[in-house]
Structures are given as C-alpha cells and as structure tokens.
Design brief:
Strand order of the largest sheet: 4-5-6
Number of strands: 7
Number of domains: 2
Order of helices and strands: EHHEHHEEEEHE
C-alpha cells in the first residue's frame, strides 16, 4: 500500500526535502510512520518554501496504523486519555474572539497574540492543537 502525503517544505527546499524523506524512511524501517502533524512540527527551520508530495510503499498493517494515528478520533482519544489540554495565556478583556466572533466577557491572549474566549479555545484545541488564525502550534502555551 502507498502512503502519500503533502508537506510545506521550508527553505532550503532541496535540503529539507531530503531530510523529510530520510526521516520517513528511518521511521518506516523501524516499523512506524510519523504522523502528518509530527513531520509538519519537525519541519520548522527556514522560511516558507513550497509544497512537496512524498510517497512511500509500506505494508498494509503500517498503512492502517498511519491512517489511525492521523485520524481525528485517535487524537481525541489521546486527549481523553491524557486529560483535557489546558491553554495558558494572558487574561484580557480586549479584542474579539475569532472563534465565536463576540467581544463579550474575559478572554485569553496566546503567545501568538491572538485572542479567544477561554472556553472557545479550550474546545478548539481538543480537535487541533493550533491557533485557528495563524496555525501556530500552541504546544508552548498548553499544559497536558
């Protein structure tokens, strides 16, 4: 079976493409496939580059494991098993929550400077551990 993934490769594109391919190949030799998110969070050096597609021929069992690891249900199961993620940031009353688009009540400002109601961002990170505006991983702002 084939695993086909597209990643935004940072500059220098050629060098980082080789690094990503090597990382995939090393993991596959060890019997695992890194998740899409794992590779994207690892590929942080350099300026925005271009999108590249990577293809790997793997066993059916490994392809099924990769599909499960990338699935939303799997992520939510991990969150439930590790308790809820908790966002930490600077309390503020200023700004509009970009999730619910309301300006009422107290909000929280993340390290990326975007502002949300605490309940709105808490619910959001149960699905995706990124700022919904700039896609910055909020792992530095989150306590597990």
């Amino acid at each position: 079976m084939w695993i086909i993934r597209t990643h935004q490769v940072k500059t220098p594109v050629r060098q980082n493409t080789v690094r990503i391919r090597r990382r995939y190949n090393n993991c596959i030799k060890q019997g695992t496939v890194p998740t899409q998110h794992c590779i994207d969070s690892w590929n942080i050096v350099g300026d925005t580059g271009t999108h590249r597609t990577f293809e790997f021929d793997v066993s059916e069992q490994l392809a099924n494991q990769a599909a499960e690891a990338d699935s939303l249900d799997h992520h939510r199961g991990l969150v439930r098993n590790n308790d809820a993620l908790r966002v930490q940031g600077e309390p503020t009353a200023a700004g509009t929550c970009v999730i619910c688009r309301e300006n009422r009540g107290n909000k929280i400002r993340l390290e990326c400077t975007h502002t949300f109601h605490n309940t709105c961002i808490q619910e959001w990170i149960q699905y995706k551990n990124e700022c919904p505006v700039c896609q910055t991983t909020v792992a530095n702002s989150v306590t597990i």
